[in-house]
């Protein structure tokens, strides 16, 4: 494989210590829930390419829609121009979300979508003549992206970004109000600091890359009440949780909470093309509607609203309308709970938990991450543990046999993980 041998010395891979990590596997083909490697090995993908390929790989409807769009209009800038795919997608997203969310700002990554939400929140107050509300209130265990602005609202102790202390803007990161003690602490914190806070930022129901931590819908309801009491904005980061991953189309539905801003990404295009969205309420948008040019939102990713990506997203929404994706997510959860539950009581297993199409085995520690990953590949599955977490977020279309292969592989590897 000349392309592998000549190209590998020039690539820098994500979240990878390039000197010590296992060599990356050469993927040459995808189909359904399978990744085919250059040597012909097929791996069942247990994480849907970082939670994006919700319909599986190479779905013909998405492929054909993107091919047609490529032949007519692959991209035009949204600076002064619009196109059908972007406008149709914006309308459809607003139709799916709470009725107060009426305006969609497109970008090309989840991190940027969150940055845009933060920027909207701060400028909302500035446009209303309020000074000093520049801080976000985020939560321990949270993860919102890798850019400098979004690193600053991740859990500062979770490990990925703590090297950058001193560079990052300082925001408030506190415990989620889960129980009587943490609710009291949260309320007391707001009583002291609300005047300097622009918005509360949270991942609804599941804090993803910060540890696959679950919380009750009542947490979101308390955050909404607190935001209303102290006149704060509420931003829900649904980049991981949206599009059926936790069960409903959006996690906010479980709490019946309407945020002021919601961010979307990951599964938005069915795992085919980069696209993210920041969806704002009429209340937010109205603060930018002005004769004063300085009240406009000064942000504009070059490829925002890319026509190919928007076409893929519209095709993905077609599939959610036509096919039983949310039922499939529920069935995946029902199957994973007992299957992964076999790990309970095994040496080194701290917790097993399932929500929607998310299955988690939390270990006390992973001593040798490279060996653990290699053992999973040997079992014919593509699963990417991180920190002390082994998890599954498969395509919502995965069949029983492939899901069983994934859960069996995890159980087997954890059961025999001496030295891992």
Descriptive overview:
The chain has 420 residues and is α/β, with parallel strands linked by helices. The protein folds into 2 domains: 24-55 and 327-415, Aspartate Aminotransferase, domain 1 (Alpha-Beta Complex); 62-322, Type I PLP-dependent aspartate aminotransferase-like (Major domain) (Aspartate Aminotransferase, domain 2, 3-Layer(aba) Sandwich). It has 14 helices and 16 strands. The protein has a 7-stranded mixed β-sheet, sandwiched between helices. The chain has a 4-stranded mixed β-sheet with strand order 1-2-3-15. It is globular. The chain starts with a helix and ends in a 5-residue tail after the last helix. The relative contact order is 0.15.
Strand and helix map with partners:
Layout lengths: L1 H6 L19 E5 L2 E4 L4 E4 L2 H4 L8 H13 L11 H13 L4 E7 L2 H18 L7 E5 L8 H4 L20 E3 L5 H14 L3 E6 L3 E2 L5 E2 L2 H13 L3 E5 L14 H4 L5 E4 L11 E6 H5 L20 H16 L2 H17 L7 E7 L2 E6 L5 H10 L2 E2 L6 E4 L7 H16 L5
Parallel strand pairs: 3-15, 5-6, 5-7, 7-10, 10-11
Antiparallel strand pairs: 1-2, 2-3, 4-12, 8-9, 11-12, 13-14, 14-16
